[in-house]
Amino acid sequence: MKKLLSLLLVACLTAFAIKDSTYMRVNDAVITQSEYDQYKQFVSKFVPQERLNDQKAFQEEVNNYITELMIVKSEAKQMGHEISKDMKNKVLVDIAKNNGITLQEVKDNLKKDKVNPELFAEYQLLGQVLSQIVKERFEAGFSVTQKQIKDKQKELTHKQADLNMAVVKTKIPTVEEKKNLKTALEKKANAGNAEFMAISWQPIKAFPEEVQKDFSALKDKAFSSAHELEGRTVMFQLLAKRDFVPTSEQIKNALLGEYLMAKQKNWMENKKSEARIITY
Fold this sequence. Notes:
Layout: H1 2-19, E1 22-26, E2 29-32, H2 33-43, H3 49-52, H4 55-78, H5 85-99, H6 103-112, H7 117-138, H8 146-156, E3 158-168, H9 175-187, E4 195-203, H10 209-217, E5 222-223, E6 227-229, E7 232-244, H11 248-274, E8 277-279
Antiparallel strand pairs: 1-2, 1-8, 3-4, 3-7, 5-7, 6-7
Helix pairs in contact: 2-4, 4-7, 5-6, 5-7, 7-11, 8-11
């Protein structure tokens, strides 16, 4: 009996050792097989189906995510931005508050979708920490010319519309539903199965071409035709139109964002090319 128990114990320990053996290294970071399995499950929720179905492509996605995560974690630690358990917990707490549910419900909902709550919170923080690293490293080198400001102002200037919108969740509405749409807009409240909502100053070019044409012919306070939009039928009341011209501050912020995004991409690619990556 003792011999049998010893053999079972050895078998269990061997199985555990295999499960928790080293899967890969990224510089000084060690990722065990069990950690890799968790990352693999997590990444599977965000990978396009065609890459998920391709075993080699999917493994590349997982390995790339782990590599970038370890690089950012290491850099964050050196710069005093290490991701802590408290930070990850706060992400989940904030989600709970914003959705009017408890922290436990957030965790339960993620687990139902087979998403590890801790890895999800870490993922949410990763972008913030990476942006902070890049900002601290590169923002001081940002500068713009007057030509860049002028070109960006021209690019960002656009026509906007202040709107009321009514929606029925039907692709081909009945005559009654079309009447409900107009009634909802006139009363500024739901009518029948038509839902009313106000939409403040949206770029006109963000709407489909047929809606844009409708807007161009409308005067203030006028009603549009009924349009199919994303499997629903919508009708608008155009309250007013205006030309949006960004301020110099908005232009500089847009240019700074583009500058930092380019720096972030280059920084990450350089870090990955320099990294010591070993898979076992």
